[in-house]
Amino acid sequence: MIGWSAVSRSLRLTASIASVSLLFAGIGCAPRAGSLSGAVTPARFPVTDIPRGHQRIVFRWEYVDQALAAKGEGIARVASPDSVRLDFYLDGGLGGGYAIVVGDSISTPGGDQVRRYLPPVALLWAVMGRLAVPATPDTVAKVDGDVLRADIGRNPVWRVTFVADHLTRLERIVSGRRLEWVSRTGSDVRYQNERSSRSLTLKITSTDEAPPFDPEIWRR
């Protein structure tokens, strides 16, 4: 007779195999990243630190995936050197949510159920124009006119693009395929997850200096 422990182990193994299969299926659907273009150059990146002080950024947002579509207004409260609170309000007063990013950590009121809709921390910081990927000995940079591109790390590779000293794109590449990315063009910011067809777009409407924020906004 097979005991419950054996059944449990079997179920866990089956679930693990299914998860790995889905992961590789998702990676296979993502487009190939290709190689860097341009001439090899020293990997010296422009400064992307958050400006000293506090900022209040107002934006319109829209979220779309295979099962859900939502849009509304949003506010980002940014504090130097590495803190931001993002509040999202649904159109029609139907509710909302928030995410707090401090350094390399994210907290949300809904835990993992909400966090799965958000980009990884490095890509969230790219939304704000900040490069938060540590440089490694594997970094390769190339320049083409006023465009600087670099691959940082190994599997995953973070591919960053600067145009005239501004961070305009950050991609996460796994096994040679571009799984997700953030692009910044003027006041438009877009996050795209290629595996799940998930996207979050922001249209920035205003950016203003602000007085110090209430410390309570950084707590859950």
SSE topology:
Elements: H1 4-29, E1 39-41, E2 54-64, E3 69-79, E4 83-90, E5 96-102, E6 105-107, H2 112-115, H3 121-127, E7 140-144, E8 147-152, E9 157-163, E10 166-174, E11 177-185, E12 188-193, E13 198-209
Antiparallel strand pairs: 1-7, 2-3, 2-13, 3-4, 4-5, 5-6, 7-8, 8-9, 9-10, 10-11, 11-12, 12-13
Write a structural description.
The protein is an alpha+beta fold and 220 residues long. The protein has one domain (31-218): outer membrane lipoprotein receptor (LolB), chain A, CATH 2.50.20. Helices cover 17% and strands 44% of the residues. It contains three helices and 13 strands, in the order αββββββααβββββββ. It has a 13-stranded antiparallel sheet with strand order 1-7-8-9-10-11-12-13-2-3-4-5-6. β12 (188-193) and β13 form a beta hairpin. The chain is globular. The relative contact order is 0.19. The model is unreliable at 1-26 (pLDDT under 50).
